[in-house]
């Protein structure tokens, strides 16, 4: 033995490293030792496939095995892992003896079967059987011919076996384990039984998920694992009983109809999973009532197989879940109720309201990937009722029914996710009688009634739902109902978006409400919702419409691009409108009319086509701390007896006046900033009234305040300054009380009173004007008491001919009297007036030059330019000299050229707004 080992080592040393030489030493092997090694090895671990196989002796007549070299490449054998087999020396002959073995050591039948088992690979040492060079390779392999069969033959055999047979084969050897776990084998078996195109993940009751092969973690064969998870289910498959019955390798129950399968499951022990696979087909049931944790799941091979698994009924509710079904499951099927033809005998009897699905008290099934429909003309397709009813319904479709889609009532709850509720004759969802469901990401559309109807104290939480194209409003809230609607899209309603009436309530937060035919939100008949942080836009009518004594909190919304007013308040309604942006509307911003009220504060109202805020017809809102700007007409418009409080607002940059008051309106306007108006600050006309106190009115293109056409406002403690025209203009029988105001730095007269007007001015300070302090002309008069007129350019008080005001205790001082000084220096008055102001002095007309009453000539031009002409004194009044302006045929000798620093501007009448 030693000599043989030395020779072998020397031969191997040429091509192998030392370590390989040590492992590859030859050893003699006896049949006896092989048997003992096999016996000691025990059962092979099926987790790892072998790299080397052993053979079992088939005959006891062999007397001697001669050692010959194995016909295998030594280098290749050394590269692979080897078995480490230990010899029991007590049972082996010495190396010098022959190879004769006792017949008592011949391998038994059990030992032969063990010979096919695979061994765990150990280390890198060669086994004795592999390292022995005494046994011919042909003789060695011929001892177990099954090992030389190719995998294809086994796979062909396995393709005729069932899952039980494959599990048995997998325990035989590592090779059998590997082959019997082939993915394709189990896929074919799986799809033959369950029909699913993708393996179904079912780790626990009520959890079913189709997972692609690559998404199964730590699972080698997903088809086999899914088969294991679903093995306890029973099957209902029309015409395919032969697949499930009569096979020793398969223990799967099959039933001809659903009722029998359910009865079988109800008799199972509580610890056994109750699972029914309902395969493609139409199953007519007789009112299935589930009161156990039964699981019914559809099965099929098509992509949308749930549409082909149909359960229907025509003599009562199709499926009812009652108490005891807390852990029940229904999935991947279609459930219908089909109303039977009308029975003439039963005409006039009470109508029976049946549903496709009913969930009763204390039932909480999980229902997913199902379709429900009903042709019953009353009731609902899905009905969830009574306290404790709490289903979890997701990814379901309730479409095309002749009644309500989902009806939740009587303290029922439930979670409804990712469902489609569409094309139903009545409302998509009814919530009533303190029911409080949770809807998330549902698609509720194209109903022939309202989308979601909550009434009679119904509640509910609706999140991220898409509600659109319903014939009436998207959501209706009525009779003390109080839902919460968050981050939903509510659009293209054929009437309105959200309709809240008859003391309805609710919270509507962060929704997008757009493109509805009528108002985005209607609030009426003493309803009191909270509308916060929504986007309300592109409505065919208004944004938010509050009427019929409606209330509510409308806060932090973005309301824009609506065809009518962004917010409309009327008929005694009194909402709180706070912190909203109301802009870019094709009508007004906020419209308060017909005795509407409301607290409107801290809003930004801008860029609207008509008035920013309209107040009319007896309305009396409170408008406080708003920014109202950049409108294309008026900022705030009071007309037709509009009243209210306008307080601490910033009103600026409107194309018309900042504030207009007319036709009997009498608001209180206090502590506002009104500026940048292209048509004046405040316009009071057509018998308008109002109290304006403590306001700042400045930087307006025309007069700071206009009072005309018999209007009679009160202006008290206002600051009116830096106007590009006059401070206050009172025309056309205008009146008013002007008291304790400061009027300064205006381009024209501080106060201009004209055309039969008769105001009262008391204790005002009028100063630093670039024209006169007070000018009274055209038959007007006034009562002037205790006023201070100083530092005005043209003079403190200028009175036209025949003007006789009532004057008491006025102080007129430190005025520049530029008109008198210009006349005294012999200049033309046009020198100080240009075409933009109208100093008051004597003016004449020249008969010789054929001038008319419309032409005015200053006294110095009469003395110089028209010297010796036939002239006529007209009156003492406001004018600019036409001679100096170059509008007469004769060239002015006192004025070298016409200097025009603006267009001719005679305190032009402001633009008045018209109602629409």
Automatic annotation (TrEMBL):
Composition bias, Low complexity: 50-60
ZnF bounds (UBR-type): 826-897
Annotated ranges, domain UBR-type: 826-897
Ranges for domain F-box: 143-189
Record Pfam families: Beta_helix, F-box-like, zf-UBR
Database matches in InterPro entries: Beta_helix (IPR039448), Carb-bd_sugar_hydrolysis-dom (IPR006633), F-box-like_dom_sf (IPR036047), F-box_dom (IPR001810), FBXO11_UBR-box (IPR047504), Para_beta_helix_rpt-2 (IPR022441), PbH1 (IPR006626), Pectin_lyas_fold (IPR012334)
Taxonomy, superkingdom: Eukaryota
Region of interest (Disordered), ranges: 35-60
Subcellular location: Nucleus
Pathway: Protein modification; protein ubiquitination
GO terms, biological process: regulation of apoptotic process; ubiquitin-dependent protein catabolic process
Molecular-function GO terms, alphabetical: zinc ion binding
Cited CDD domains: UBR-box_UBR6_FBXO11
GO cellular component: nucleus
Keyword match Nuclease: no
Assigned keywords, A-Z: Metal-binding, Nucleus, Repeat, Ubl conjugation pathway, Zinc, Zinc-finger
NCBIfam families: para_beta_helix
Name by which UniProt lists this protein: Bm4794
